[in-house]
Predict the 3D structure of the following.
Amino acid sequence: MKITAVIPIRTGSQRVKDKNLRAFANTNLMELKIKNLLQVPELTSIVVNTNSEEAIRIVNESYGGGGVNIHRREEYYASSRCSGSEFFRHLGEVTDTDIFVYCPCTSPFVKPKTVSQCINQFLSTSGYDCLATVSSVKEFLWLDGKPMNYDLAHAPNSQNLPDVVALNFGVTVVRKEDLIKNSNIIGRNPQFVVTTEIEAIDIDTPLDFYIAEQLYTKLYIEQKDLLDK
């Protein structure tokens, strides 16, 4: 059985310029993700799916022959013209694997042991068509001028709000055939793994990038902690 981690990287990110390759403390997000995934024994291979010549150069120079491969993405699938569903289906179609593990660079604090846990849990349970990491949301949510998850006249304490979860896309495990069939890494019957608050951090804005870099510097450089613990 082939189990492949796919790291998606494209040029032209709009909110944080070159966020996957720009300096992030003493590394960059792509290399940090590769180094973490190389510590996951369940993986058969790691594929960087990208249209970035710089990413291709770095992978070839630093990891060529070391279990990290490149798929050169066609420009359409790196453009804003491509929908999310088209993109996910394409990832499934071009990846030679049985089990697809989606591992974006923008979740830099996901530990190797968490990736292993997700893979093993997905393989050992039945009845689910994917496994995805999520964050617990204990917030008072409103939509169209109305509360979504509580009664305004009987507001609970925040810890007693319903157990709502949000996808954080730290790790998603799915069979290739289901990824292609659903045109999505999330299936019709997902299984969820709740991550820690730090592992749930997703870099989407310049502020996210700044906070994540400061946290990484504090925890993993100054305090000599390790992401693989």
In short: The domain at 3-133+166-222 is CATH 3.90.550.10 (Spore Coat Polysaccharide Biosynthesis Protein SpsA; Chain A). The mean pLDDT is 93. The chain has six helices and nine strands. Residues 142 and 148 are 5 Å apart (CA to CA).
